[in-house]
Amino acid sequence: MFKEETISLFRTIPTPFYYYDMELLAATLSECSKEAEKYGYLLHYALKANSNPEILAMISSTGYGADCVSGNEIKAALTNGFNPGRIMFSGVGKSDDEITLALQLRIQSINVESRQEMEVINALAGAMGLTADISLRIIPNVDARTHRYITTGLEENKFGILPWDFDEVLEKLKTLGNLRLKGLHFHIGSQITDLDVFKSLCHRVNDINGWFMTNQVFPEIINVGGGLGIDYRDPDRNGIPDFSSYFRIFSDFIELQGNQQLHFEPGRALVGQCGSLITKVLFVKKGISTRFAIVDAGMNDLIRPALYQSYHRIENLTSGEKPEKYDVVGPICESSDCFGKAVTLPLTNRGDLLAIRSVGAYGQTMASRYNLRDLAKAFYSSPTRS
Ligand code: LLP
Fold this sequence. Notes:
The chain is α/β, with parallel strands linked by helices and 386 residues long.
């Protein structure tokens, strides 16, 4: 829902552009922190969802740690105010340079995804005369019941270490003197809207945590990843996800031992709803049975509908006339460059402004220069720093 003065401002900005509602972001961050603090849980923001510097600055200043998946994300976290002691580094394919950077910075934990990676980190840490703090990324085999491209916790996925390899992993760890095991890490997928999935995750984590305990290993950190979904259908009604129910599930079902800390890595739930992609209608064209609204944003600015067939709400901000159905499509030479089929919009004309909603997560960060298009710029409802 945009105010008249915001829409007037939009008319003066070259399209397409990302627009971030920083007040909504601030409110979301504080709601999430408030609910997590009730149980003493720690939060690490997953930078891959949105690494825009203004957004990172606001998140770091609200006290979040960072979950990074590349050397450049670690650098962006540092530049934008995150404390190295609260940075986690995950990823199934870390390069030697990235591991070295993480070791130099003494980040909180490198989340290791295979035995071979353990050996490489041990060797690099040894060469630097350091002991590396690591966590084991574990495949819990819990079905996230979400799109298969963003499911990561199943046995057939490439992520993490399988339970039947635990014995060998522990044997190997005993021989690697430059590693210190700090924690266990789990992340089962993204855009999870069925909260029962997290209940199943808790049960698996309890079993696995118990196995390590009986084998005389006491991980300090249990990290259950991110994954909480947002309401793409009704972003105005559900602008802030239900963090209260989410954390309550963990409080009810997870069994922490001693003074184990529980960590979370939310991405989408924090930044998804604060972003919109504002685009202008270039042409309206009638096909045989379809009316196309051809806009100046393309799948290079927002790839989610093309890649995951995902739904984003689309609104016409400058017309209030009788509704019609449109396929809202971009200018790129691919039929998948379509933001929505048979979308009901008020009568739409060349020059109208459309808002594609809920693009704050995995919108700008997944943008590309395909067709040699310029990267769209970002604008903010209020500056976060002068
Ligand atoms: N932690 C790890 C280890 C992850 O791999 C991810 C996301 C997160 C945390 C944050 O998950 P979130 O809270 O945002 O669900 N591009 C896809 C989403 C890919 C998610 C990848 N991993 C999309 O547009 O839906």
